[in-house]
Amino acid sequence: MAAPAQGDGVGERVVGRAAAERVDVPHALRQAGVTAALAFALFLPLIGFQTVQNIRNELVLETRWSLLFWMVAIAGISRLVYDLVIAPWRARRAAARPRASTTAAGVWRRRLMPFAIGFLLVYPAVAIYGAGWTGATKWIDNFGIQILIYVMLGWGLNIVVGLAGLLDLGYVAFYAVGAYSYALLAKNFGFSFWILLPLAGILSSFWGIILGFPVLRLRGDYLAIVTLAFGEIIRLVLVNWVDLTNGYAGISGIPRPTFFGIPFTANDDGFAARFGLEFTPVYRTLFLYYLILALALLTAFVTVRLRRLPVGRAWEALREDEIACRSLGINTTNTKLTAFSIGAMFGGFAGSFFAARQGFISPESFTFLESATIVAIVVLGGMGSQIGVAIAAIVMVGGVEIMRELDFLKYVFGQDFDPTQYRMLIFGFAMVLVMIWRPRGLISTREPSVFLKERKAIASDLVGQGHG
Amino acid sequence: MEVFLQQLINGITVGSIYGLIAIGYTMVFGIIGMVNFAHGDVFMVSAFIAVVAFLFLTAWLGISSIAVVLFLVLLAAMVFTSVVNWVIERLAYRPLRGSFRLAPLISAIGMSIFLSNFVQVTQGPRNKSLPPLVRGDFVLLHGDNFPVTLSYKQIIIWGVTAVLLAAFWYLVARTSLGRAQRACEQDQKMAALVGVNVDRTISITFVIAAALAAVAGTMYMVQYGVVNFADGFTPGVKAFTAAVLGGIGSLPGAVVGGLLIGIIETMWSAYFSIDYKDVASFSVLAIVLIFLPQGLFGRPDVEKV
Question: For B133-145, how does the pLDDT look when each residue is reduced to its tens digit (9 = 90+)?
């Protein structure tokens, strides 16, 4: 593998230099013309025309020629810029940099960890200092808690997808089981959050075993589609079983978590009064923030420890080569089931936290889009890499959240421009772009959990991928 | 009996739409081994293109003959959707060919999210409804409770589906293009060595898949007259179910699977519960994959070390 790769590198360098030296302008212009023509055909039906309802409720067509013109022009000019500027630059860069097949061990990553955790611990203080007591709620809640939920879900799914190599597109089902377990049991039986948190995890992992057992014979894409079907079935049952779940209307008035029995209310026996503080709703947000931080770190910690146990090594062996695993006497069904149920358990924890934080849940929160987001976070982060998953969650979820804050764009594009409308559009496009840019995710090197003499990171191009 | 017959007719109508989409899944899976997750949304985009083309032809050009309009709408939807899918393949899937196994799947999921939101942003989130294009029906059987009918639009859907399926079957089974496709399915490297242009063949596969999805989209518009930007996902998964049921990689399997899924779904709605009809289709997917992974017409997947 290494020798031909180096040979290719030399060849590419020569070709790259040749390409860098001459830029074929007429060819680039032709290409730009072709791109513009394609863009015209692409955008003519859906951007050039818009279907709108008139007063009599009939559909009529309106035209948007100027927008169509600008889109086509942007497509053509981007192609021209790419061919004349970016492609030669990339060729020069590729020529200048020899291909590395092994990278230095991820030392900086391990040094980064304490700083990252330290930052997460003081983040609320930074937010309160920066935005004041009332303004901080938004920053801690929308950015801190929201992102940490996805970090935790990403780490939970990482056990299934990243370590065991089983692509699960229905992970949100376990998240939903956890959320509905907490909501229903807390509302109907009055159990407290601290009893229901482990119970929700147990119920979810139980569902993980029930759903996992029949499907784990399947491999790769088939497994992905069946888990997707199960995820949708659970959502549809939640929608249609109105007696239990109240259908689309959802469950509201879910009891909020307490500080070990002390509620976060303005009453005399509330948190603020008991500790002699002035009442603000920020205390609850702070408490929820540290709670989800603790849960997420617990997930990471358990994963790191599990990787060193026999079962964790079996997961990673299974991801690399299932047939070899079987011939070594590893019980693949049990190994897959443990991965599935432990992943589901963390999904259940996150679900019950979600229900407790929101106070309201409905099937709308558990659509396929959520599953796709979590899978995207795991794959974009680099499957199996804890820190990569965290970075991907911050970028994807934080990026989508920050789109809500971009009010200045209104001054650029006019007052009726609403950036939030474009969030999912950009999200989907970003998924495609990141995949093309780094198909193996942001952090693609693998660090073996067991090694002979020294720990070496393994570059992604040296890692074969079995069909899990 | 009347209920059964009527539901059978309805089921075949819905099923032929699923079958047309399923062919796109099965062809793409056969040739590059990838579940083209965005295919359901390509179908939805084609339905929107059909709506726009219909309004353009009737309101702007004032063509009143419904047959001419339908023919032109079908043609426009097929051409424009083909361009869309061709560009998608070039941008989102080709750079990932031969890459890590999950990369094209994630890229396709991203594309699916992008397409549905693109339509939502450009055409608005509301349902687009058209007045019924074709009215009237045949009464096949005068039952005790209600007559069993076969509407003209159902006849149109059956006819168009049958004719286009025959045309594409001829294309794949009898022409050199079809031979190139089957060669790429078996072994891309060998096909390239004997002079098959693999990239072009894969592109054409995507174009054919899109054209058939566009037929399905137009028929969907004729049948229901309502399109929404979120309409791609559920028919997409059901069509994938159909492809799996028929045996993925097999063209007749996809059509038979589509018809079966359509019939199962309508029968379930008639005899059990309409709320759970999607649950029924998704359960079929799970059951088939667990007990009959090679499908009805597929070859068993032999595992080699």
Answer: 777 777 777 777 7
